[in-house]
Each structure stands twice: as structure tokens, then as C-alpha cells.
Specification:
- The protein contains 13 helices and 7 strands.
- By secondary structure, it is α/β, with parallel strands linked by helices.
- The protein has one domain (22-277): Glycerol-3-phosphate (1)-acyltransferase (3-Layer(aba) Sandwich).
- Helix 10 (190-198) packs across helix 12.
- The longest helix is centred in the N-terminal third of the chain and has 22 residues, at 42-63.
- It is globular.
- It starts with 11 loop residues before the first helix and ends with a helix.
Length: 280
């Protein structure tokens, strides 16, 4: 990973504040300093191995698992990396991080929806405490940070660019929300802007089966099996535009999903144990 951050200077549009953003939005969207301070806190560092220990214990108890395939050796790529994945379930993040090489996983941050995950001081103490707990748990397990998916994109793109230049890999869900019917939505432009401003490799990722492990509205993982497919890295070229790059990325994620001929079954714990024993 190169330490020369000056090779990709930030454009003035990223450095400046968005004039259309309200003061409350600017307060709610965390700065890079706030994000990295949270990541480095003793509490989160202590909770992270405990959270992944719980995830791995639940894999055995509840009977779920995930398996990756790689079109390229990720560890040979110049870091930082941007992972752009489809999104069907909250289990997708655990499946992706759980299949990444450890050195990459350790420095990967996950963009989470600001309106769901971010601070909330206007809806009562109970709601605020529940969000505080959610931030602590998700932040410790996944290095999640709040990404504003509803406001002007440059605000959160600016933060993401700086995280990449500080050596963090990023996991993004360019659809902007989870699919409710399994169909992939059109990707938003933010990942194209990141690729343009940083020239970081972008890895298309397709996850299938996470919706069986953690269906919408369910909080306890179910028996199931997820497949995580990592495609060839894409780089932003001199002839690219943000929208053109995003269209190319979206097509690659769709093609990764088409490799799975039959839908991933919802396995029972007994079936999953048998499949593991047979090397499936």
C-alpha cells in the first residue's frame, strides 16, 4: 500500500462543504476523525473479537455458513480496495468480511445507512439508546460508519475518499438499500466518484443466500448457506465517466450472480453438517 497520498489530490468540490446540506445533517454525518477515533477506541477493539466469536459460534449452533470464490488473488492487489456488492440481507456484510483474507478484513470499513445507523437525538431517549447500542455492536464487528444515502452524494464521498487515503478498504452497497424481492437495483453514482477521485481498484462482489440466513425482519440467523463471489478488479480509466464506470461495475456484479444456475437452498442444520462433512 502506497503512503504517497498526494498522487491523487482531492478536487476542490470534495474539500468544500455542501451548501445545500442542513446543519443537522452535517452534525449527524461523522467526520473521518470521528470515524477513526471510534474504530481505535478500546471498547470497540475489545468487542471486535467477542463479536466475531459470537458469529462463529452461531454458525455452528444455528447451522449457517458461507463460501467464497475468487477470480483474482486479492492479496496481490495494491491496497486500499473498494468492494462493491449487491445487497439482499444484513447477513451479506458478515459473509463478505468472513470470507476476506484476514489482513484485508482487518482494514476494511463498511458504509452503513446514516438514516438507519447514524446518531438519532430527536426521537426520544429509548430510540437514541437503541441506536447507540447498534452503532457499538455493528461498529465493533464490522468497522461500520454512517454513510448519507439520502443527501447530496459529495458529502459522504468526501469522507470515503479520505478513509481510502488513510489506508482503509471500503465495502459499499451501491444499490443504496437491501432488495426486498431478490432483484438487484440500479447502482448509484457514488462508487463511480470514489473510483474517479482515488483510482483504487474496485472489486465487484455478488452475495447469494444471505437472505436465507437472515431474511428481512428476522434478527436471529437461520440455517442457510451463502456464496460470495469476488470478480476481477476494475480500475477507472482515462476514457471512463462516473456513470459509465458504475454501469460497467453493475454489469460485472450481475454476471457474477448469473454463474449460480440454481438458487441457493435454505439448508437445515443437519443438511449443512452433512454438506460440510462431504466437502460441499
Amino acid at each position: 500500500m502506497s503512503d504517497d497520498r498526494s498522487a491523487n489530490p482531492a478536487p476542490s468540490s470534495i474539500k468544500s462543504r455542501d451548501p445545500d446540506a442542513s446543519s443537522s445533517q452535517r452534525e449527524h454525518a461523522p467526520t473521518v476523525e470521528e470515524i477513526e477515533h471510534r474504530f481505535s477506541s478500546r471498547r470497540l477493539k475489545a468487542l471486535r473479537p467477542a463479536m466475531w466469536g459470537c458469529i462463529n459460534v452461531l454458525k455452528v449452533v444455528r447451522g449457517y455458513d458461507w463460501h467464497p470464490t475468487f477470480d483474482h488473488d486479492l492479496e496481490r492487489l495494491r491496497q486500499p480496495l473498494i468492494f462493491a456488492a449487491n445487497h439482499r440481507s444484513h447477513a451479506d456484510t458478515a459473509a463478505i468480511l468472513g470470507t476476506l483474507p484476514k489482513a484485508i478484513k482487518r482494514r476494511t470499513a463498511v458504509a452503513a445507512a446514516l438514516d438507519v445507523f447514524g446518531p438519532d437525538s430527536n426521537n426520544g431517549l429509548r430510540r437514541k439508546l437503541s441506536k447507540d447500542a447498534l452503532q457499538l455492536l455493528v461498529g465493533s464487528a464490522f468497522h461500520a460508519f454512517a454513510f448519507d444515502r439520502q443527501g447530496p452524494p459529495l458529502r459522504s464521498v468526501r469522507t470515503s475518499v479520505q478513509l481510502l487515503r488513510n489506508g482503509w478498504n471500503l465495502l459499499l452497497y451501491p444499490e443504496g438499500t437491501r432488495s426486498r424481492n431478490g432483484e438487484m437495483s440500479e447502482f448509484k453514482a457514488g462508487v463511480g466518484l470514489l473510483a474517479r477521485f482515488t483510482k483504487c481498484p474496485v472489486i465487484p462482489v455478488h452475495v447469494e443466500g444471505g437472505e436465507n440466513i437472515l431474511p428481512y425482519g428476522v434478527f436471529m440467523p437461520q440455517a442457510g448457506f451463502a456464496r460470495v463471489r469476488y470478480g476481477m478488479p476494475l480500475t477507472y480509466g482515462s476514457d471512463d465517466t462516473p456513470t459509465g464506470f458504475v454501469a460497467r461495475l453493475e454489469e460485472q456484479v450481475r454476471l457474477l450472480g448469473q454463474r449460480q444456475v440454481a438458487p441457493t437452498p435454505a439448508w437445515t442444520p443437519g443438511e449443512l453438517k452433512l454438506a460440510r462433512a462431504q466437502g460441499g
